[in-house]
Write a structure and sequence with these properties.
alpha+beta; three-stranded antiparallel sheet; 23% strand
Length: 84
């Protein structure tokens, strides 16, 4: 699925992603399948949720895993769109 995703995304949305991100509820799961698949552990969330307006923890903290789709993903993420 990871190999196919960039082509499908570009066909649908007009650009290729350079990095995937996923969240794992560390209180329930260990993220073992992501670790075994070479995803990079990037830290954890504050447990606020997307729609949080009160800045209080309303959901459990999530572990954040990243998967680069291109070797130069860092450079691509910091460049202006017309430079990509």
């Amino acid at each position: 699925m990871i190999k196919r995703l960039p082509d499908d995304w570009e066909r649908t949305y007009g650009y290729r992603p350079v990095l995937l991100e996923t969240f794992v509820d560390g209180e329930k799961f260990g993220g073992t399948c992501y670790i075994a698949s070479n995803w990079i552990y990037a830290g954890f969330t504050k447990g606020q949720g997307r729609q949080d307006k009160s800045n209080k923890r309303v959901v459990s903290e999530k572990d954040v895993f990243l998967y680069p789709l291109q070797k130069n993903f860092r450079d691509r993420l910091v460049k202006e769109p017309e430079e990509c």
